[in-house]
Amino acid sequence: MKQTILICCLFACLCMSCNTKSDQPVSEYKPKDVQLVTLDPGHFHAALVQKTAFDDVDSTVYVYAPEGGDLKLHLDRINGFNARSESPTNWNEQVYTGNDFFEKMISEKKGNVVVLSGNNKKKTEYILGSLKNQFNVLADKPMVIDGKGFQQLKEAFKVAATNKLLLYDIMTERFEITTMLQRELSMLPEVFGTLEKGTPQNPAITKESVHHFYKYVSGNVLTRPAWFLDAAQQGEGIVDVMTHLVDLVQWECFPEQTIDTTDIKVNTAKRWPTNMGLAEFKAITKLEAFPDYLKDKVEYDTLLKIFCNGEINYQVKGIHAKTSVIWKYKAPEGTGDTHYSIMRGSKANLVIRQDKDEQFKPTLYVEPVGKNAQYESVLQEQIKTVAAKYPGVELKKSKKGWEVVIPEKYKEGHEAHFGRVMEKFLEYLKNGNMPSWEVPNMIAKYYTTTQGLEFSLKK
Predict the structure, then answer these.
(1) Any idea what the CATH number is for the domain that residue 61 is in?
(2) 318-336 b/e (C-beta count within 10 Å ≥ 16 → b)
(3) Who's near 100: CB < 8 A, 6+ residues apart?
(4) What is the residue range of 43's domain?
(5) Pick from 66, 140, 147: which is nearest to 103 by CA?
(6) For the segment 203-233, what is each residue's pLDDT rounded down to a tens digit?
(7) What is the C-alpha separation between 83 and 86, in angstroms, rounded?
(8) What's the CA gap between 9 and 4, in Å, rounded?
């Protein structure tokens, strides 16, 4: 009897040992520090955040979205990153598509960072709701598209601070090398002097961005969701792409300085439409007709008017700035989106051009103000300071001064900049905070764009 009991006990222990061994891989699995949750991805930027894999980011990503074309396009892009031959990613997308997708995300709480890039109509509401439920938020621009959203955003930052969470927007243009070097050179008094105050007619800093509806992303013609062409859902150009330009004005003119809404004064603002024919609409949306929500913006049944262009003339701490956004349908062959920028200093102007002379590639110039026989030797000496941080950067004579010659290794392109933003965000998450100026400057930025919209609508 004792022998029988002993055998049974040994058998039971053996079974337990086997079960433990087979479950071991599951019990050993631990999610990485950052677990992404993608909420209603309607814009291709949602996928570009995942174009690169990161050591601290778990490969399993939870997606909550309504069923439809936006979700399919997003998942197709992620699958493309996984399937590419060079540096493939290994994302495992877990998808929920019920109508209660937002509520499901909140109740399941399967991650700690919500990525938001899509229809902007409810974006600020989603930001606030995510923060209230203990999610950090990485949001594509714009985080708000009107005055009501701006008030919600201010509340969202208060909730983030109370819950010790991060709310951050995706400012890719800070990682464009010509912009980075324009900022670096502006901080060298021997080269730039001091920033002019400017006037409304001749601002101290001007930034103009030209975009195109028909474009290529990751080698393919981009399919635009129809709602992207509806200002009520995407936001007008003056509150959408303009966000980047206003951010750069603050980031370059007042590096690491805090800006308050009381430092902002909007002088004038205007808006105007881009007209798109039905055939052009079909080419980028793959739809045969304008949806009902666009019908009131259509003339003669075939011409869609999109209020995507805008200009703001304003002041930041007394410095005059002008930002302009222009949307065209398609860029000429061999070209693409373009950027123009000038910072006017007492000793030199720092200018970024991207025209035919530059082969439509952003190029930075140093153009001295007045005549100074010693300026060239001073500039050549000071560029060594920049080259110490960015090896290989040098100068070449140009029509009005000098071109800043930038090695190809620094010219990453727009899509790669999303990885740079993600790296910075992960750094902030690890530290548990951001630089003290980031939050007030985000608030000041969206105050500027929403005030600009209000001014433009008064006409």
Answers:
(1) 3.40.50.720
(2) ebbbbbbbbbbbebeeebb
(3) none
(4) 36-169
(5) 66
(6) 999 999 999 999 887 778 889 999 999 999 9
(7) 9
(8) 9
Domain termination residue (choose one: 169, 184, 210)? 169
8 A C-beta contact, residue 443 and residue 143: no
164 and 187 co-located in one domain: no
**Tokens, residue 240:** 């959408």
pTM of this prediction?
A: 0.90
User: The tokens of 421 are what?
Assistant: 């933003």
| Within-domain flag for 124 | yes
Same domain, 418 and 444: yes
318 and 352 part of one domain: yes
**Residue that the structure tokens 């989603």 belong to:** 126
Q: Are 280 and 217 in contact (CB under 8 A)?
A: no
- 294-342 pLDDT per residue, tens: 999 999 989 999 999 999 999 999 999 999 999 999 988 777 888 999 9
Question: Token pair for residue 263?
Answer: 């430092």
Residues 226 and 149 occupy one common structural domain: no
Same domain, yes or no: 134 and 233: no
Domain co-membership, 301 together with 440: yes
Nearest Cα to Cα of residue 449 among 270, 209, 243: 243
Q: Are 341 and 179 in contact (CB under 8 A)?
A: yes
Q: How many CB atoms neighbour CB 234 within 10 A?
A: 24
Name 414's Cβ contacts closer than 8 Å, sequence gap at least 6: 172, 176, 337
Prior bond to 225 cis, omega within 30? no
Domain count, the chain: 2
pLDDT digits (tens, 9 = 90+) for 43-101: 999 999 999 999 999 999 999 999 999 999 999 999 999 999 999 999 999 999 999 99
14-51 core/surface letters (b: 16 or more CB in 10 A; e: else): eeeeeeeeeeeeeeeeeeeebbbbbbbbbbbbbbbbbb
pLDDT tens column, 277-293: 999 999 999 999 999 99
